[in-house]
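Table 4 source record.
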Amino acid sequence: MNLTLAAIILIGTFLLLIAIGGNIAYALGMAAVACALYLHFPLMTVVNLILVKFGNFSLLAVPFFILAGELMGSGGISDRLIKLSKALIGWMRGGLSMVNILASTFFGGISGSAAADTASLGAILIPMMEKEGYDREFATSITMTSSVQGILIPPSHNLVIYAVAAGGVSIAELFMAGLVPGLLLGLVLAVYCYFVAVKRHYPKGDRFRLKAVLHELKGSIWALGTIIIVVGGVVAGICTATEAAAIAVVYSFIVTFFVYRDIPLKEFPNILKRSVKTMSTVLILTSCATAFSFFITYLQIPQKLTAGLLAISSNKYILLLIINAILLLLGCFMNTVSIILIMTPILLPVVESLGMSGVQFGVMLILNLGIGLITPPVGNILFIGSSVSGLPIERLSRSVLPQLGAMVVCLLLVTYIPFISMGLPTLIYG
C-alpha cells in the first residue's frame, strides 16, 4: 500500500468534508473509515480502538467536571465571588476591571469553563462597569480575556482531555503546571488594565476594609471549597482526578441546592440536560478523533512533520514559534477539543524531540487554544461576549486586540521559560 496516498486520503477527506460544511466529529470519523478501507483495515479494529480509549478511567473525569461546573455555575455563586473580589482589590485604580479578573480566577477554579465564566460574570460585571464609567467594549473585552484562566486553572477538563490524548501524561502534574500560567495570565491582564485605567481616568473603588473581606469570604467559602477538594485531593494524593471530580459533583449538588438555595431543586433536570448535551458533544468527538489519531500515528505523519520542520530550521526557538503560529491559526477556525484531539498526537513527538516535556506542551497548547476562543471567525467566547453585552462581533474583535497582545506575551513566556509551568509540579512531584 502507498502510505503517502493513504495520508492524502485521510487528511483530504477530512478537509473536504469540513469545506462542504460537515460536522467536525463526523468528518474525523469518515476520514478514518476512508483510510481504513484503502489500507484494507478491518473496520472492527477501528471500533475496538475507540472502545479501548473510552475504557480509560481518567476520561471519566471529564463528564464529572462538566456537571460540577454546571451545578456551581447555576447556583448563584457569581455574585458572591464578585463581592469577595471587590472587597479584596476593588480599591485599586480601575478597581472593577481588577475585580473582573480576580472573579474569573475564582470562577475558573470552580467551573473550569471559560464559556460559563463569560456568561455568568459578564451578565453582572459588564453593566456594573458601564455604570461606573467604563467603556462597554473594554468591560466586555476584559470579561472575555480573563475567562481564559478557567481552562488553565484546575479543574480544567481540557487538560484532562489533553492527558488522555497524549497518553502517559499525569493529570495531577498538568493541574499543577496550569496553575501558575493561569495566574500569570491574570497578572498580565491586570497590568494592562491598570495602565488603561490611569490613561482613561477610570475610578477607584471603596477603600480596603478587612472586615468587609472577612464578611464576603464567609459568604463565598462554600463555593471556594470546590477548589480545595479538587486541587487539594489530587495534589496530596488522597484521590485521583476522576475521584476528585466525582466528589466535586456531590459537593456542588449539596452547596447549590441545600446551602445557597438560589435555585430550586426542580432545576436539576435542566442542569443535567445541559451537562449531557455538552458531554455528548465531547465524547462523540473523542471517539471519532481516536480513530483519526490512530491512522495519523500509523502513517508516521508526526515523524514526517518533524523532519519537515527541521528542514526549515534547526533552531528550537524558531520551531516553537512556528508551532505556536500553527496552533493560533487553527484556533481561529476550529473548536478547542477538536484541536486537542487532532494535534496532540501530531505535535507532541515534535516538541519532545526539541526537549520540551509533555506537561509543558499541554499548558502551551491549552493557552494557545484559549486565545483562539476569542478570535474570529469561530471564537466561542467572542459570540458569548457579544450576546451578553449586545455589542456586534466586529466591534468586539477590534476592542479585544490589545488584550490579545498581552495574552500572546504570556504565551511566549510560558513557551520559552519552562519554570513557569514546570516549577510547581517539579517542586511537588520531583
